[in-house]
Amino acid sequence: MKRSVIALLLILAVASCKQPEPRRPVKVKSGSFFTETVERNRKILASEEALIRHIIEKDTANSYEQSASGFWFHYQKKNDTARYLPRPEDGLLLSYNVMTMANDTIYTEEEIGLVPYIVDKQQLFPGLRYAVKLLKEGERATFLFPSSLGYGYHGDNNKIAPLTPLRSTVEIHEIKKQQGSINQNK
What we know:
Layout: H1 2-16, H2 32-58, E1 65-66, E2 72-77, E3 91-96, E4 98-100, E5 105-107, H3 109-112, E6 115-118, H4 126-131, E7 140-145, E8 166-176, H5 179-185
Antiparallel strand pairs: 1-2, 2-7, 3-6, 3-8, 4-5, 4-8, 7-8
């Protein structure tokens, strides 16, 4: 009996010396969701850019420029005498409207009103933040933004639906130069 207990203990000791086995995940993620999302975003952007190009082709009265940020614009009123473009922390007084690409008004300039804005310090939708840096005091321009530079996947939770490319006419009424900007201009 003593031998069988010793043999049993010896077998248990040898069996318990086995290396611990790591737990395997229940689900293995392949990364395909990320790849699919990137591909979907590329298709959305391509279709929105095609729509914008179509609008530009039909609008022969205006000469559009493409920005480095990925939107297009044309001037309605240009100020050739001014040389100063807004810089970070400059104060602006601006007005703008928001429309669909089909020229349906979402927000009028009157609804929005005159907007005091400190460059790069306050919230505007991304395209508008970039757009105001391209206009000098007294200039007015119309911008065509893909949805990624508008309100994106969420919309504005009010009148702007998700994935809506936007058209906006922006005017800079006044630029109040920040002290550092004044010294850089001298």
